Amino acid sequence: MDFAGNLERISESIENAKKAGAAYRIGPELEIPGYGCEDHFLEEDTIEHSWESLVKILEGDLTKDIVCDIGMPVMHFGVRYNCRVFCLNHKILLIRPKFWLANDGNYRETRYFAVWSKKHTRFTKFGDAILEFNDTRLASETCEELFTPAAPHIDLVMNGVEIIANGSGSHHQLRKLDQRMQLIQSATAKAGGVYLYANQRGCDGSRLYFDGCSSILCNGELVAQ
């Protein structure tokens, strides 16, 4: 719940992406408040402070000419969701809630968040959608969704999406990184395209260690890690 520190780190990440000439920046899951807030996610203050941080990002020039994909909790019609918020040029393009929640082992996401089940909305600002630009199509899945039998990227690539982004909060566990990489490699080898994976790194106020290993894969090949 280091809102000030997280905002500083997010801002620095966006600035670094812009300096590198990037047109798109993705951050980890729930990066504004931090993934390990646990029962603090049940407090409306956590969501309110997350919005305050996002407003600061939108007010400045951080989102000018770069799509920023930011993780935060969002309350929609009185229901809490774990969301990706896509921003560009001071505006929110899309809020994409998580479809599959992690609820085993170290994870208790269903305690804090609801599952979004309304799929394939044609035009929306909140829900399941594809971002279409002049030269490509971009969409996302979040952490646990990569591991599910009906992972969102399957339908997305069949609908012409070329870039899949995954903002994740996946902790370190023996051989888990290998499993992640195999799933991403398989996804891009079968259908082609680019998969961008951004994972939290370090300790986040709990007993878990998040191992980072953010990666870019293209057509089944590892491009950067």
Q: How many beta-strand elements?
A: 12
Q: Shape from CA axes?
A: globular
Question: SSE order in H/E notation?
Answer: HEHEEEHEEHEHEEEEE
Please report the number of helical segments: 5
Strand order of the largest sheet: 5-6-7-8-11-12
Helix content: 25-40%
Overall SS class: alpha/beta
The amount of beta strand, in percent, is 25-35%
Low-confidence runs: none
| Average pLDDT rating | 91
**Describe the biggest sheet?**
6 strands, mixed
Rg, rounded, reads: 16 Å
Q: Give the N-terminus to C-terminus distance in angstroms.
A: 27 Å
Notes on the structure:
By secondary structure, the chain is of the alpha/beta class. Helices cover 27% and strands 28% of the residues. It has five helices and twelve strands. It has helices spanning 3-19, 44-59, 109-112, 152-158, 176-191; strands at residues 24-26, 67-76, 79-88, 91-97, 131-132, 137-141, 163-168, 194-199, 201-203, 209-211, 215-218, 221-224. It is globular and about 45 Å long. The two termini are 27 Å apart.
